[in-house]
């Protein structure tokens, strides 16, 4: 069995799949992945919600139907209401993948849900008070005019930072990105199978 890629390699792979990153070299994307991960860990250390309030005051609601969408969804942050929406069918699917892949030592039972909540909290922080800090931390200056530096937005960096934040807050052995990447691959395979089946049927 081939070993699972490490978190930074997985992160760089995610970044390389985003169209606006196509012209960026593999070395740059690996550096961005490394720095986004380190930033997510630092943010987790900075952000210390009160004991008994791990989500930092966000309301959490549960829904189903996350896997039925054109773009499957595990969780999302509704900015207007400050609510975290969790999709229970997607969470159950990811938990089953943890067992299938033998990753239980990295992701104890229930950690997919906990990580999804914290991931969305991180998105909330990264979209607001820490947006510029993240751009500076991933260190990709787009433009220098004298002493002014405009830091480029590298699409996907906030995603990697959010995963790293959740992993650190929960003390997980691996980034939950490992599970979401496996879920995407499994759903892609399933979609292809359905498509092939319907081609045969027609
Ligand atoms: Zn995300």
Lateral arrangement of strands in the main beta sheet: 1-3-2
pLDDT averaged over residues: 88
> Ions, cofactors, ligands: which are bound?
zinc ion
Distance between the termini: 37 Å
SSE sequence, one letter per element? HHEEEHHHEEHH
Structural class: mainly alpha
Q: How helix-rich are the residues, as a percent range?
A: 40-55%
Low-confidence stretches: none
Number of helices: 7
Radius of gyration: 18 Å
Oligomer state of the chains in this structure: single chain
> What is the general shape?
globular
Estimate the strand proportion. Answer: 5-15%
Total number of β-strand segments?
5
Largest sheet: 3 strands, mixed
Total count of domains: 1
